[in-house]
Every structure is written in C-alpha cells, then in structure tokens.
C-alpha cells in the first residue's frame, strides 16, 4: 500500500483510517495468536509465566512495567514489541511528532494541509522508527522528556512564546503514534516521574505551563529492578498506580532453558573468522550453566543484585577462546572446550556477581573457583550416577599421576591417560561416539577427571596435575592437655586427656 499512495488525496480515496497505537498492537497480536505465530522470537523460558501476562496486558491496552533483576531479557522484550506494529503508517512529511495526515495534532501540520490540500505529499514511517527508548538517569530533565519553549525559534519567526510553533518537542512527543520505553525507571528523578502522570492518565502532555496540550497516541512501557532491590531510587506511588500491569521476570528455571539462551546469544561459531571449527560437548555447556545456578543459590553472593544470564554467555565465549588458543598452538583440526577451560574464564565470572560479607572475606576468585567445583560435581553426579569409578580412583591411590593442564594437547591427554584402567570407559559414558576425534576424547577424559576431583576422590594441583586424594588428617591422634597447672594442686584434681 505504501508504494502506491503518495498524496493526501490518494490516502483519503483508499479509505485508510489510522488506529490508536494500542488498538493497532492489540489487533496485530490477535492476528498472531489466531495464526499460531511466535510472539516474541528469541525469548526462552517465559512461555508459561511472563508471556501470558504480557499478552493479557496488551489485550487490555495497558501501559505496563517489566520488573526483574539484571539480565532477564526485559529490554529485549520491549524491543520485540515493534513486531506488533503495522509495517508502515502514513505521516505528514517533516513533522517531528509523526502527525497523522488525516487527524493532525500540531498547528503547523494543520496549516500545511489547509494550504496544500489534497496534493500534499505524505510519507510512510516504518515500524522500526516508531520505537523510542530512553535509559533513565538522574540528570534527565522534564525538557528532555516532554519538551520546552525555544526562544530562538520564537525570535526568528517573530512569534509569541505561547505560540505552539515555538515548542521544542522532547522524546515523549517524538514517540507519538509509537512505543516509548523507559529503562531503569527508579533512576528517574521523582519530579520527572510526576511529569508522566498526564500521559498515563489523560493521554496528553502540557509543555512549560502554556495552554498548549498535545493529546499524544503512545504506548508507554517501563523496566525496573524491584523497588526494594535498589538504593538508587524508587518508583513513586502515584506513578505505579497509573501503570496498568506490573509483570515480573525471572531467571531460567531449568538448565535446559538456560543452555538454549546461552547457545543463542554466545558468539561461538568462529569457523567463518578463519579459525578451525568449534564443537562444544553438551557436558561443557551444562557445567557452564550450572555455575550460574550455583551462584544464584550461594549465600556468599548477594541475592538482591542477582546473577545475570550474561555470566554463562560471556563465560562460554571465554572458554571457547581458551580452547581455540590451545587448538591453534597444537595445530588441531577442531576446537573442543574442556571443563578445565572454565578456570581461564575467571575474569568473566568474578565480574558478574556482588559478594556478601562472607564472600568478601574469602575473595571473589576463590568464590568463583568454589562455584566451578560445585558445578562440575553437580553435573558429573547427575550424568555418572550408578557408574563405578573405583578402578580409576584405585589407580591414583596406588601412586599414579597425570601431569596434565588446560594447555595439554588432545593427543597428549589421550596418550597419557591410556594407562589409567577404566578411565576411557567412563569417558565414553559422557556421550562419546565410536571414532570420536582426539579433542573430543580429551574433553571427555578431562570432564571425568575434574568430576572425580569435585567429589574429592582424586586431587589436582597446578604443578603435579592429577594425583591421589590428599590423606585425611588422623582423627584419633591422642592429644595431651593438662587441665590445671601442676604447681597448683587441688585435692582430688587429676590430669585429663582428650582423644
């Protein structure tokens, strides 16, 4: 339609009537639901929780807020709303507030239509240009959001300051006939939040107190951390009362969903960059996700700050890079990450969480190492439940050792582990197929060894590699401690000993 209509007269002949933006989004949502189309492609794990609430809010034509911790896809959901807009809408060319040619708001557009009539050209605005996003910061002013009087424009045109043509429009009027998103709403100063009252309740804004009111057509959406989770500010109660729906987001509920998100977001397909092909075993992906799950449950990590899904995403990218470096150095044909590559990703892990007092005492790096060990143990136990590892453990208890590290080539790992009875059989249980390449075999062997370390059946050190578990301290060692001084005798007192 946009390719065939070029003037106001042609638009009127086509009998196209613009809908309010909330009605437009609702209608397109209804069509998608009836056709069974995906509503928010790329949003994983919200099908039974967030998405139904979001659909209800749109069907109710509500302004809404997404409330949740960092890294819960809040901004991505808001940007996905663009797909619910019409592909193009007609606008008055050059109008800052995208005026509808059939129902103009500003006096300049009304004057132009009266002057040019049916021959006035029209423009078509694509859906991507109808989304305006603003990150709330304490320095945002009401002029930035709503607008202000432009005295220079008034002086140049010889207009009175109260004339509508002297207005400089802010972000909110410029989002007219579209979606206006404000991220981190609590960071917006209270007096600026007050300035949003009218648009939420009455649907209009007033600039600088002059008797000029713009009845805007806009869907307002917000994101925020829960109010009691942030010390930077809060959403004032009257504004919360005017927001139609409050929708809570959450972290992935299952490891399967988390793996799907990380696979979608992480940059791991690097063959096109000229390097060898990357192949990531499933157990490596599971351990990476389990690190985040362990972190969210650890009492040494601040629950109020949260542990973003960006942790496994950036961690997976780093372990692939470490594996890529090893493969390039050893001239291997494929890049296969190992569980031990997680320790090379410590710079990413430690930057993705805030510590409680107990964690500060232990140190961020040691906390991250503990998380990796717990994650490896959890995945290994689940995958190898019922498998007998005594033969491998006994080999180490009898004095065997494997001086391996994350820089050891795949051939070196495979050749040195051949003498460990039962190790290759356990590695096959990690999903190896017959005729698997050496880097895949080495990764599976590495996983078994790290899993046994996590269960404290064997030990590993940077200088000795893998060896027998350290002997437990003797618990029955006799320890002599006189209860009283021998020079100060109390009748009947005797020396006492503790075992």
Describe the structure.
- This protein has 21 helices and 17 strands.
- The chain has a 5-stranded parallel β-sheet with strand order 4-7-10-1-11. The chain has a two-stranded antiparallel sheet with strand order 2-3.
- It is of the alpha/beta class.
- The model is unreliable at 472-499 (pLDDT under 50).
- The chain folds into 2 domains: 8-248, P-loop containing nucleotide triphosphate hydrolases (Rossmann fold), CATH 3.40.50; 255-468, no CATH class.
- It has helices spanning 8-13, 21-35, 50-59, 74-80, 107-116, 142-145, 151-157, 171-174, 190-194, 197-201, 237-242, 255-265, 282-297, 310-329, 346-349, 357-362, 364-383, 390-397, 410-417, 423-428, 438-454; strands at residues 64-67, 88-91, 123-126, 131-135, 147-149, 167-169, 178-183, 205-206, 213-214, 218-224, 245-248, 277-278, 334-335, 458-461, 465-468, 479-480, 497-498.
């Amino acid at each position: 339609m946009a390719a065939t209509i070029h003037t106001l007269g042609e638009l009127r002949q086509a009998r196209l009537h613009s809908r309010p933006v909330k009605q437009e989004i609702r209608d397109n949502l209804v069509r998608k639901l009836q056709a069974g189309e995906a509503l928010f492609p790329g949003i994983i794990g919200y099908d039974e929780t967030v998405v139904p609430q979001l659909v209800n809010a749109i069907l109710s034509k509500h302004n809404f807020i997404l409330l949740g911790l960092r890294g819960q896809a809040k901004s991505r959901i808001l940007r996905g709303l663009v797909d619910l807009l019409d592909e193009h809408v007609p606008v008055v060319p050059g109008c800052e507030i995208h005026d509808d040619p059939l129902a103009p708001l500003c006096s300049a557009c009304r004057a132009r239509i009266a002057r040019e009539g049916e021959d006035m050209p029209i423009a078509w605005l694509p859906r991507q240009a109808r989304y305006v996003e603003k990150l709330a910061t304490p320095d945002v002013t009401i002029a930035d959001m709503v607008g202000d009087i432009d005295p220079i424009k008034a002086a140049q045109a010889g207009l009175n300051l109260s004339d509508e043509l002297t207005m400089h429009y802010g972000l909110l009027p410029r989002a007219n006939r579209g979606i206006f998103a404000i991220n981190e709403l609590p960071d917006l100063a209270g007096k600026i939040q007050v300035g949003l009252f009218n648009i939420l309740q009455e649907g209009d804004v007033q600039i600088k107190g002059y008797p000029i009111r713009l009845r805007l057509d806009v869907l307002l959406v917000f994101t925020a951390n829960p109010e009691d989770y942030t010390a930077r500010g809060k959403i004032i109660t009257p504004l919360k009362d005017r927001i139609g729906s409050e929708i809570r987001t959450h972290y992935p509920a299952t490891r399967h969903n988390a793996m799907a998100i990380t696979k979608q977001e992480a940059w791991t397909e690097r063959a096109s960059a000229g390097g060898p092909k990357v192949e990531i075993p499933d157990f490596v992906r599971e351990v990476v996700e389990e690190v985040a799950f362990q972190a969210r449950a650890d009492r040494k990590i601040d629950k109020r700050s949260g542990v973003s899904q960006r942790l496994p995403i950036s961690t997976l990218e780093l372990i692939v890079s470490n594996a890529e470096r090893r493969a390039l150095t050893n001239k291997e044909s494929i890049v296969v990450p190992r569980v031990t590559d997680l320790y090379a990703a410590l710079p990413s892990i430690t930057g993705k969480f805030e510590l409680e007092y107990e964690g500060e005492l232990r140190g961020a790096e040691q906390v991250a190492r503990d998380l990796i060990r717990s994650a490896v143990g959890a995945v290994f136990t689940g995958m190898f439940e019922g498998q007998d590892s005594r033969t491998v453990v006994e080999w180490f208890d009898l004095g065997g050792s494997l001086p391996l590290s994350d820089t050891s080539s795949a051939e070196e790992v495979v050749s040195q582990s051949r003498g460990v009875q039962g190790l290759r059989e356990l590695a096959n249980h990690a999903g190896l197929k017959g005729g698997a390449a050496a880097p895949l075999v080495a990764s599976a062997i590495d996983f078994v060894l790290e899993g046994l370390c996590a269960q404290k059946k064997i030990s590993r050190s940077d200088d000795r590699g893998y060896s027998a578990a350290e002997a437990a301290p003797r618990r029955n060692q006799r320890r002599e401690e006189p209860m009283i001084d021998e020079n100060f005798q109390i009748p009947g007192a005797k020396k006492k000993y503790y075992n």
